[in-house]
Design goal:
This protein is α/β, with parallel strands linked by helices. The protein is about 35% helix and about 25% strand. Among the domains are: about 120 residues, Methylthiotransferase, N-terminal domain (Rossmann fold); about 55 residues, Beta Barrel (OB fold (Dihydrolipoamide Acetyltransferase, E2P)), CATH 2.40.50.140. The chain is built from 14 helices and 21 strands. The strands form six sheets. The chain has a six-stranded parallel beta sheet with strand order 2-1-3-4-5-6, sandwiched between helices. A five-stranded mixed barrel has the order 17-18-19-21-20. Strands 7-10-13 form a three-stranded parallel beta sheet. A hairpin with a 4-residue loop joins β20 and β21. α8 runs parallel beside α9 and α12 runs parallel beside α14. It is globular and about 65 Å long. Bound molecules: S-adenosyl-L-homocysteine, iron/sulfur cluster (SF4) and FE3-S4 cluster. FE3-S4 cluster (F3S) binds next to α1 and α6.
Length: about 425
C-alpha cells in the first residue's frame, strides 16, 4: 500500500509527519510524493487559528473528488485538528475514514488495516509518548536541514491557545535519543539541525536543562549548524545565551514571541511576563550576542485590546527593532480560557486594520535590518537554487536571513560559502560570492 502525506501547521507537525512516515515504512507501506498513486491520503493538520482549519477543509474537498474517481482510496486526518474534533470530524467530513491524534501514531499501521471494515478514531493523549526511538523518515526535507523535536506538548495554557488541548502535557526526550537522531542525520550528510519544541526553554530531562542540551549538541557535532525554536520570554535563561555566544556552530538567531506590548493584554493572555521583563530579556540577548537576529510572533485584536494597548505593541516593536516577525489577528478557539471567560470584542475590521499597521511597521523594521547587512560578508549554507533562476543559488546565514547569490560552477547544495551582501529586496538579501 502506498501512502501520500501532506503537512500543515508548525515545525512540530513537519517532524511528526516524518515520524508517521517512518512508522508506516517500518510496517511495509510505501511512501509516494505523487497523490495519484496513493492508496492512502494522510493530511497532518493544524488548529491554531480558524483559517488553518479552513485550509484543511478546502484540501479535503479536493481529496473527496479523488475518492470519487477511486473509491478504494482511504483518507486519514492526523494532527491537531483531528485531536480537537475527534468523532465530530467524521460527521462533518463524510469522506474521511480515520482520525488519528498526535500521540496515537504508533497505532496507524493497525488502524489502516481496520479501515476496510469500519472508520476509526484514535485520539487518546499520552503523558509519556515522545516517539523517542523512532528515526524519522525525512519526507519533507531538502537533505540539508532537518527538525529534531526535543519536547512534545505544552502546558503553559496561554489563554488564547489551543495547543495544550490538542498536544497534551509537556514531555522531554532523553538527551541520548536526541544525540542518536542527530548522529543519524550527520551520517546522511545533513548540515543543519533545528531543535524544536513549543517552549524549548522548559526542556528538562532529570536535571539536564535546555542550555545543557544545546551545549552537548554543539560540542558533539562541531561541523553541524545548530538552530532552535521556540524560546519563551518567561523561561529563557542567561546561561542559554552564554552557550549560544560560546559556540560558532550555534546560529545567532533567537525567535522570542512577544504577542503584545501591553501589560494588561499580556496578563489577559496569561503569558507570564511583563513588557519590562520582556525588554530585559531582549537587552540580555543583545548584550550576550551582539550579532544576533531577533524575530517574534505578534497577535493583534485580542480580547479587550484598546487602541492604547495596540500602540504599546507598536512602540515595543520599534524599541526592539525586530529583524523579522510573524503577525496574526486573534482567532477565538473554542475550549480555551479566552473563549470561555473573555470577550472577543475587537471588531473584525478593526483587527484587520491593526494587523495591517503592525505589518507595515515590521516592513520598515525589516528594511532597516537588511539595509544594515549591506556590505557585510556572511557564511551562507547553500540550500538550493533561487526560485527565479538556476544561475542563482540561495541559502541562509547564521542569523536565518535568506541570501540569494550568483552561483559559481563549483558551488554545491550543502556547501558553506562566503557571500558579500550588495543589495536586498523585500524578502531577501542579494549578494556575490566573496573570495
Ligand atoms: N509555542 C509558541 C507559539 C506556537 S503557536 C509560543 O508560545 O510562542 C504560534 C503563534 O501563533 C503564537 O505565537 C501566536 O502568535 C499565534 N497564535 C496562537 N494562538 C492563536 C489564536 N488563537 N489566534 C491567533 N493567533 C494565535
Ligand atoms: Fe500556545 Fe502558549 Fe504553549 Fe505557545 S506557550 S504553544 S502560545 S500555550
Ligand atoms: Fe498548529 Fe498543532 Fe502546531 S495546532 S501550530 S500544528 S502544534
Amino acid at each position: 500500500m502506498k501512502f501520500y502525506i501532506e503537512t500543515y501547521g508548525c515545525q512540530m507537525n513537519v517532524a511528526d509527519s516524518e515520524v508517521v512516515a517512518s512508522i508506516l515504512i517500518e510496517h511495509g507501506f510505501i511512501h509516494t510524493k505523487n497523490i495519484d498513486e496513493a492508496d492512502i491520503i494522510l493530511v497532518n493538520t493544524c488548529s491554531i487559528r480558524e483559517n488553518a482549519e479552513t485550509r484543511v477543509r478546502g484540501r479535503l474537498k479536493v481529496f473527496q473528488q479523488i475518492k470519487k474517481q477511486k473509491p478504494t482510496i482511504k483518507i486519514g486526518v492526523l494532527g491537531c485538528m483531528g485531536e480537537r474534533l475527534k468523532e465530530e470530524l467524521l460527521k462533518q467530513e463524510v469522506m474521511v475514514d480515520m482520525v488519528v491524534g498526535p500521540d496515537s501514531y504508533r497505532l496507524l499501521p493497525n488502524t489502516i488495516h481496520k479501515l476496510d471494515v469500519e472508520k476509526v478514531v484514535e485520539t487518546t493523549l499520552s503523558d509519556e509518548e515522545t516517539y523517542e526511538e523512532i528515526l524519522p523518515y525525512r519526507t519533507e526535507s531538502n537533505g540539508i536541514s532537518a527538525f529534531v523535536s526535543i519536547t512534545r506538548g505544552c502546558q503553559n495554557f496561554c489563554s488564547y491557545c489551543i495547543v495544550p488541548y490538542v498536544r497534551g502535557a509537556e514531555r522531554s526526550r532523553s538527551p541520548e535519543s536526541i544525540i542518536q537522531e542527530i548522529n543519524g542525520l550527520k551520517e546522511q550528510a545533513f548540515k543543519e539541525v533545528t531543535l524544536i519544541g513549543q517552549n524549548v526553554d522548559s526542556y528538562r530531562y532529570n536535571n539536564f536543562s535546555f542550555a545543557d542540551l544545546l551545549e552537548l549538541v554543539a560540542r558533539q557535532f562541531p561541523a553541524l549548524r545548530i538552530r532552535f525554536s521556540t524560546n519563551h520570554p518567561k523561561d529563557m535563561t542567561d546561561q542559554l545565551l552564554r552557550v549560544v555566544a560560546s559556540y560558532d556552530n550555534i546560529c545567532k538567531h533567537i525567535h522570542l514571541p512577544v504577542q503584545s506590548g501591553s501589560n494588561k493584554i499580556l496578563k489577559l493572555m496569561n503569558r507570564g511576563y511583563t513588557r519590562e521583563q520582556y525588554l530585559q530579556r531582549i537587552a540580555s540577548i543583545y548584550k550576550h550576542i551582539p550579532d544576533v537576529a531577533i524575530s517574534t510572533d505578534i497577535m493583534v485584536g485580542f480580547c479587550d485590546e484598546t487602541l492604547a494597548d495596540h500602540s504599546q505593541t507598536l512602540s515595543l516593536m520599534k524599541e526592539v527593532g525586530y529583524d523579522f516577525a510573524f503577525m496574526f489577528k486573534y482567532s477565538e478557539r473554542s475550549g480555551t480560557y479566552a473563549a470561555k471567560h473573555l470577550n472577543d470584542n475587537v471588531p473584525e475590521k478593526e483587527k484587520i486594520r491593526r494587523l495591517n499597521e503592525v505589518i507595515a511597521l515590521q516592513n520598515e523594521l525589516s528594511y532597516e535590518s537588511k539595509k544594515h547587512d549591506v556590505g557585510k560578508v556572511f557564511d551562507v549554507l547553500v540550500e538550493g537554487y533561487s526560485k527565479k533562476s538556476k544561475k542563482q543559488m540561495m541559502g541562509r546565514n547564521s542569523q536565518n536571513k535568506v541570501i540569494v547569490f550568483d552561483a559559481h560552477h563549483n558551488t554545491c547544495i550543502g556547501d558553506v560559502v562566503k557571500v558579500k551582501v550588495e543589495s536586498f529586496t523585500s524578502a531577501t538579501l542579494i549578494g556575490k560570492i566573496y573570495e
